[in-house]
Design brief:
By secondary structure, the chain is of the alpha/beta class. It is built from eleven helices and eight strands. The chain has helices at about 20-35, 50-55, 85-90, 100-105, 110-120, 135-140, 140-155, 185-200, 205-210, 220-225, 245-255, and strands at about 10-15, 40-45, 60-65, 95, 125-130, 165-170, 210-215, 235. Strands 1-2-3-4-5-6-7-8 form an eight-stranded parallel β-barrel, surrounded by six helices. Helix 1 (about 20-35) runs parallel beside helix 2 (about 50-55). The radius of gyration is 17 Å and the shape is globular. About 45% of the residues are buried. Bound molecules: phosphoenolpyruvate. Phosphoenolpyruvate binds near residues 215, 217 and 239. InterPro entries: Aldolase_TIM (IPR013785), TIM_sf (IPR035990), TrioseP_Isoase_bac/euk (IPR022896), Triosephosphate_isomerase (IPR000652), Triosephosphate_isomerase_AS (IPR020861). Homodimer. Pfam families: TIM.
Length: about 260
């Protein structure tokens, strides 16, 4: 198995952007531009935009994701949303363990793992984010750190469940900074994640798993990044808010 048979996935992470009318406008602009995409196209939107996005994407090839979910099924967790609440709406994907959640909202590898398991149990497909901070890279521990994050995030996740898991390698120093990892750096760490998956689940699962790169991917640099043998797609922040840029990245994934 090789890249040609893995599912390329381009997912937008809108973060805390867009009101409902703005969300509808953006989805309507994206749809015709990506209708012939040869990859999976996902818009991960704020909770308040999920219904709007689901309605606007009906009958199209654009899928909808959330940006987080809680690990408990229900209960006294004011302000939180459960995985089942998302699947009940028709949401298919969820971003978990994004570095902004880790940095600003106290997420740890352990809580990311709980969320991954809860999401899978509810029938959601998690996009699990891992990635080193600049100091980790400077200290030469990127490989160890990313392998550890991957292993903890996937603790007790079965090989069968891995069919529904996407991993996003997102070096924290490249997110929202305009500093992209070089294509070689991105590929090196995505390959390392794949070998970590092989050690956990065997080569077949590792080869079949989609591993995205995220971190200032844009219309200009997408082609080179997505052409790398172990980079199977992208998790896109800023550039996913501009329909033509997002569509250019989708086109690059289709060709890459
Ligand atoms: C992200 O939010 O996951 C991301 C990669 O952001 P940006 O593309 O803006 O760096």
């Amino acid at each position: 198995m090789n890249k040609a048979v893995r599912k390329a996935v381009i997912a937008g992470n809108w973060k805390m952007n867009k009101t409902r009318p703005e969300a509808k406008e953006l989805i309507e602009a994206i749809k015709p531009l990506v209708k012939d995409a040869g990859c999976e196209v996902i818009c991960c939107v704020p909770f308040t935009n999920l219904e709007t996005a689901l309605e606007a994407t009906k009958g199209s090839n654009v899928k909808v994701g959330a940006e987080n979910c809680h690990f408990e099924k229900s209960g006294a967790f004011t302000g939180e949303i459960s995985a089942e609440m998302l699947t009940e709406m028709g949401v298919e994907y969820v971003v978990l363990g994004h570095s902004e959640r880790r940095q600003y909202f106290g997420e740890t590898d352990e809580t990311v793992n709980k969320r991954v398991r809860a999401a899978l149990a509810a029938g959601l497909k998690p996009i699990v984010c891992v990635g080193e901070m600049l100091k980790d890279r400077e200290n030469g521990i990127t490989a160890e750190l990313v392998a550890m994050q991957t292993k903890i995030a996937l603790k007790d996740v079965t090989a069968e469940e891995m069919k529904n898991v996407i991993i996003a390698y997102e070096p924290v120093w490249a997110i929202g900074t305009g500093k992209t990892a070089t294509a070689e750096q991105a590929n090196e760490v995505c390959a390392l994640i794949r070998s970590t998956l092989a050690s956990l689940y065997g080569a077949e699962v590792a080869e079949a798993t989609t591993i995205q790169y995220g971190g200032s991917m844009n219309a200009k640099n997408a082609e080179e990044l997505l052409a790398q043998p172990d980079v199977d797609g992208g998790l896109i922040g800023g550039a996913s808010l501009k329909a033509p840029d997002f569509a250019t990245i989708v086109a690059a994934a289709t060709n890459g």
